[in-house]
Specification:
This protein is an all-alpha fold. It has 16 helices and 2 strands.
């Protein structure tokens, strides 16, 4: 396969996954902002969204204050923001168009229809009328894109590069979500709640909705109930989203998919890229949440993000950059 073709397929899937993850993060912050809490806590929640995407400086260059309306506008429909939902869906569609002949008709039509429909929805004001419904639509279109890809594409290198892009992006986004959301809880375990002065009952109630919202942002609420059959506890949320191989959006499950597809496209079983991915996966496979928490969750996730970024760079250099002639 030509490296430029693999590059388009890889990034098409990454951008679609990024749009979905942005929708998930915005939706959880939107729902959390509706809970009874201080204005400072609401602002901190929206600031966290910008921090996850490393867009706080870019946002503050355009807006004086952090408000839900401005953050959502910036992260959804600002065409000058390369990480906004509209920009990600445009980039996914443009990458798909560049390799139109490699895709099945169903995959191309799904990408193209998503782009046409999101423009119509934003122009008609559907996003402002019901942000939650819009975010659900973005998630649905991403699900549809993945399903059509797996259901219609030949199981060859094209599919493997698309899957690799999807799960590398998912690992990155899940790590960012866990890091920012857990770091925001300032209690003795992960920090003191910035929200509550109304006593233990209010604190417990907020805790439940806070952790429930985080789980729902990664479609993990029902999974948590099935796996742990207990009240929602922060350390178990962390374990579920980091170490569980059977949780579809966990770091472990995502890296497992990345490595599996990497092996299918690699012709050198001893390549540095494979070894780097294998070491990262093995640490997740044999890690324990108590050890991670003892050494510091934020430090662990920061290091994980750095290593995922290195892995993405290695994949790009080995497979996606055209060889010099």
């Amino acid at each position: 396969m030509l490296s430029r073709t693999a590059d388009h397929l890889f990034w098409m899937s990454r951008y679609m996954e990024r749009a979905e993850n942005t929708a998930r993060m915005l939706n959880v912050s939107y729902e959390t902002s509706l809970l009874p809490q201080s204005a400072a806590a609401v602002e901190a929640g929206w600031e966290g969204i910008l921090s996850i995407s490393e867009l706080l400086p870019a946002y503050l260059a355009l807006y004086k204050t952090i408000t839900s309306r401005d953050v959502m506008a910036f992260m959804v429909k600002d065409v000058d923001n390369p990480s906004s939902i509209i920009s990600c869906l445009r980039a996914a569609r443009e990458n798909a168009r560049a390799v139109r002949g490699t895709l099945t008709t169903e995959v191309w039509e799904t990408q193209n229809q998503t782009w046409l429909e999101v423009n119509r929805m934003l122009k008609s004001g559907e996003f402002e009328r019901d942000p939650g419904q819009f975010f659900e639509w973005v998630k649905f279109r991403s699900h549809l894109s993945r399903g059509v890809t797996v259901g219609t594409m030949l199981m060859d290198e094209s599919l493997y590069f698309m899957r690799m892009g999807t799960f590398l992006e998912r690992a990155d986004n899940t790590a960012r979500l866990v890091d920012v959301k857990f770091h925001a809880m300032n209690n003795d375990f992960f920090g003191a709640p910035q929200y509550s002065t109304a006593g233990a009952e209010t604190t417990q109630e907020y805790d439940f909705y806070h952790w429930s919202a985080i789980l729902r942002s990664v479609s993990g609420f029902e999974v948590y109930r099935k796996v742990y059959r207990d009240v929602i506890r922060p350390e178990r949320v962390a374990e579920l989203l980091i170490l569980r191989p059977d949780m579809p959006r966990s770091l472990h499950a995502s890296l497992n998919e990345v490595l599996s597809n990497l092996k299918l496209v690699s012709h050198d079983p001893e390549s540095d890229t494979l070894r780097h991915a294998g070491r990262l996966l093995s640490e997740l496979a044999f890690g324990r949440i108590d050890e991670i928490l003892a050494t510091g969750l934020h430090a662990y996730l920061t290091q994980f993000l750095d290593r995922v970024n290195v892995l993405g760079g290695r994949i790009s250099r080995e497979f996606l950059m055209p060889s010099a002639v």
